[in-house]
Amino acid sequence: MNPSDKKAGRPLLTEGPIAKTLFLFSLPILLGNVLQSLNGSINSIWVGKFLGEQALAATSNANIIMFLLISAIFGIAMAAVILIGQNLGAKRVDEAKKVVGTSTVFFALLALIVGLIGVLFSPVILDWMNTPPDAKALAVSYTRIMFAGIPFMFGFNLIMAVLRGSGDAKTPFYFLLLSAALDVLLNPLLIVGIGPFPKLGIAGSAVATFIAQLISLVLLLVYLYRKQYFLRITRQDVHMLRLDFTIIRALIQKGLPMGLNMVVVSMSNLFLIHLVNSYGSEAAAAFGVATQISSYIQMPAMAIGGAVTSMAAQNIGAGLWSRVHRITWTGVAFNVGLTGLLVLLIHLFDREALGLFLPTDGRAIELGIHINNITLWSFILFGIFNVVAGVVRSSGAVIVPLVISFIALLVVRNPLAIYLSHASGFDAIWWSFPVSFLIAATLNLLYYRFGKWKEAKMLKAVGSKAAAG
Fold first, then answer.
1. In which broad location class does this protein mainly occur, judging by the first location in its UniProt entry (predicted)?
2. Which end of the chain has the smaller Cβ count within 10 Å, N or C?
3. Any residues with CB less than 8 A from the CB of 78 and at least 6 apart, and which?
């Protein structure tokens, strides 16, 4: 790759030292994930502090809907990442631009349809969810505004996907940081009505998110066009802003299984919550806090999994299979090191970490320590599964990783947790975590070694060169 390519922002994930490239590429993704989690936590604190439990219940119900939408859009966005990455690896910049053009129109139509349905039918959707009557009016107000902001959320996710597919993880992080800062700052101002800001109550929290995403999206677009980002759609590329159904088919066929993977995880957790709730409020509180801590433990694996998907996609497009395998094992090594370090730190300061959320002299903190002692180390196995699955998906093989997740979580973990609960009580439930993660990691490694994932294709046009490699 020549110097002018580097200056123009051409993909560089097909060359250079793998460990350094992977680390520098995954770090902004990791920081972005942490940032989004903190953003949500802080906004919940504002709502709970100023408006009380009913308002917090209202936002919780709305956030479940948003999570399902994000799951679907996440999968389609990841499909766009892979398509763009494979085309750029094969040095088909015009084909990558076609993906950008079609994705832009497709996402815009999806956003308008979903946003309109949400605004009109929020009360009906919340009724289906059995939203508590005393929280419903607040939930409707909050949810309608969140749905109105769907075009900005979808647009932001699409641009992040395009940037990551082309090898740029830093720019999305900077604008995520801007969005999170604006959201956290505007929430109390608009909820309470501080200074010149109107007092909007729970609607203020949704409006804050709406404004933050709008400003960040507009500034991101301005930045990319001023920088003359090489995948931007210019006047000469307007013809690419059309619905290419071959590309749309690939986005849906490959994207939905990746989105469903998040739904499987969510369903599995809901089943566990239902089981744990039967042991009382202290058990539920302990599990809730342990889950919050484990969500941060998982972040390195999620970031590295996203990074290896982008890197592997470009290298598959270039036909560099030996480099793809080195990316896989480097990602696995990074996961073991980073996740292992976090697990060690939590074990050393377990009581202190749980004490941030739970009374230090209550039974719940002892239950939380027990849960962490059994489950936390198993997230190293989860990370191995996630990284290997990320590489497999980058070829276009998305069904087997979904099936493995389904087997590990819904066929093994949940029934095993129920059995252990009945056989040995609350303390034994948590062995379902290491067992299910071990099965998931083993099945993914076996598929990686012996499966035909290398033969998968996102599009027939993409991968012909890679298949020859």
1. membrane
2. N
3. 161, 255, 258, 309, 393
Which residues, other chains included, contact 337 with Cβ-Cβ below 8 Å and sequence gap of 6+?
Answer: none
Cα(182)–Cα(209) distance, integer angstroms:
8
**370 backbone φψ class: left, alpha, beta (φ>0; ψ -120 to 50):** alpha
Report whether 79 contacts 254 (CB < 8 A): yes
Closest CA to 409 of 390, 381, 388, 428: 381
DSSP letter assigned to residue 189: I
Whole-angstrom Cα distance, residue 121 to residue 125? 6
What's 409's DSSP letter?
I
Amino acid code (one letter) for 84: I
Residue with tokens 């995880």: 265
Q: Are 258 and 74 in contact (CB under 8 A)?
A: yes
DSSP 3-state assignment of 57? helix
- Torsion angle of C-alpha atoms 160, 164, 168, 174, degrees rounded to 10: 30
At 93-138, the pLDDT tens digits run 999 999 999 999 999 999 999 999 989 988 888 888 777 777 788 8
Q: Which residues contact 268 (CB under 8 A, 6 or more apart)?
A: 409, 410, 413, 414
Q: Which two tokens stand for residue 15?
A: 């060359």
Tokens of 147: 């749905």
Q: What is the pLDDT of residues 402-460, one digit of tens each?
A: 999 999 999 999 999 999 999 999 999 999 999 999 999 999 999 999 999 999 888 76
Number of helices (H), then strands (E), belonging to the chain: the values are 19, 0
Helices (H), 349-469: 350-355, 363-375, 379-393, 399-406, 414-424, 432-450, 464-468
Tokens 């299910």, located at residue: 436
Rounded CA-CA distance 22/143 in Å is 38
Residue 375: CB atoms within 10 A of its CB come to 23
